[in-house]
Amino acid sequence: xxxxxxxxxxxxxxEHVTLAAVRALNEADLILLPRKGEAKSDLIDLRxxxxxxxxxxxxxxxxxxxxxxxxxxxxxxLNAVDAWHEAIASVWAELMETHLPQGGxxxxxxxxxxxxxxxxxxxxxxLESCMKGCTKGAAERTVEVDVVPGITSLxxxxxxxxxxxxxxxxxxxxxxxxxxxxxxxxxxxxxxxxMLDSGxxxxxxxxxxxxxxxxxxxxxxxxxxxxxxxxxxxxxxxERRAALRERHGWIMxxxxxxxxxxxxxxPSNEYQ
Length: 272
Hints:
By secondary structure, this protein is α/β, with parallel strands linked by helices. It has 2 domains: 2-148, 3-Layer(aba) Sandwich (Cobalt-precorrin-4 Transmethylase, domain 1), CATH 3.40.1010.10; 153-271, Tetrapyrrole methylase, C-terminal domain (Methyltransferase, Cobalt-precorrin-4 Transmethylase, Domain 2, 2-Layer Sandwich). The protein contains 8 helices and 10 strands. The strands form 2 sheets. The protein has a 5-stranded parallel beta sheet with strand order 3-2-4-1-5, sandwiched between helices. Strands 6-7-10-8-9 form a 5-stranded mixed beta sheet, with helices on both faces. Strand 8 (211-216) and strand 9 form a beta hairpin. It starts with a strand and ends in a 14-residue tail after the last strand. GO terms for molecular function: precorrin-6A synthase (deacetylating) activity.
């Protein structure tokens, strides 16, 4: 049996790692660390740091790094993601079969939380079928998955801006930049949290009467924040985002939009 722990590690601040995550790390026989290319070396550097600092005996726990397969950026998006997940599951299966042929515990450090716009759980569901193709003995392999929750970028965003997520008694919609760009403001939500935006999806919205709280590299030492009425600050966010991406080679950002910002927090320009 393979016991796979998907361990949420927060968004870049080692102090956000929970005691449950530390325990799961130390119970693992094998820890797998994905490399996402030189441009995103910060992400694996943090994972390496956590292993060095949080493992009781770093020399005894096997830590294996691997190159994450790339998603095909052409063609149908959902089909490309499906093929990408299958490729990642195959890599996971091969690594587990190579390094834990007799079974054991595997730990994977998941950025943020495995439940929020992360595909680790979907990839893990493919593991058993992928393992059957690794070796003859793997046909009888079973995989059990458990999840250790972590602090999400959405939590850090609201904490750093010192605002609640929702207006009083109002719903919140969590969506992606792709959907915001293609479908506009979702339903009757008073507040919309937008993740996985390749850049400036909010420009597809009528900017009047919408307030935005934006953050990039949340939890990291390079964290950047902006907020204000969308009509006023949208150009500044686009400009800063481009500059940060140029400087660091990659960017992860998230933002909260509200049509009733006074139900969340008084807009900062009221204090100016």
